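---------- Forwarded message ----------

FYI, see the Glycosyltransferase family 2 protein record below. Original note from H. follows.
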Amino acid sequence: MEPEKKKYTISVALVTRNRADSLERCLRSLHQQTVQPFEIIISDDSDDEKKNETKILADKWNCKYISGPRRGLYANRNYVALVCKGTHIRTMDDDHEFPKDHFEKCYNAINNDPNSIWIIGEIYPDTKNPLLLPPPCPGQLHPRGYSSTPSDSQDCWAISCGASIYPAQIFKNQFLNVEFFKFGASYLEFGSRLHWLGYKIRQLEDTYIIHHYDKNNRSFSNRELELSSMFFAVFCHSFIYQRGLKNKLLTVAEVLKKIIFDQKIALHSLSKALHYFKLHKQHIRRSIAYNKTKN
């Protein structure tokens, strides 16, 4: 008699803010899945006057509603992930939609390899060319601060901020998104850090998300903080996780270039990034020490 396979469960950790119409499209798409997730938890960072709309939708589509921390996108991701009860956590944004077999493919992936982090590519609804699988792979952090396509989508440090499947133990071990910045490239640091910690990151190549991105509906935009977020991410990448000389030189060159072309903003951003970089190094040491004593 064959041993019984371990049952894995996927919790949807869905973050939202002031976008009821977009959220309902996302929830309708989830409801139409051939295989349903274990639970859907909506963490709502909406303004007070908008919260009731989200609560109504959560009740309509049989989701758990929680009020978010209102400290930015990445804080909200951590907050909802720590509430999830499944063995795996699927991050999600309210402007996503899915093919009907999406969660069937997600479950196939974690049953095949439950210890890896699975990242999911996206397409846009106005894509004119027919979709050819696999979709574009999410990007990984380049030492110059931008998102670049991995050479190996099955072993990389790429991350999809709103479309990844994590073993829940990652969050239970307090390996979290940094919360210093409300927006920007700091999310790419999470992929680089998890790769450094020994987690395998793989693209789930036989499904995708449909991203209804609206650049005019962003809840946050600040050039100085976005630049600080990018500086912070590359300092972590090139001076902690992948400390080769080439990476360090590329990062320093990029910082100098930004200072030359935009001195005032770049210098302010650099000061903030270095401050948070020092704090983050201390946090990493503490979290690793904590997990060593626990295990």
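H. also flagged this: The chain has a mean pLDDT of 93.
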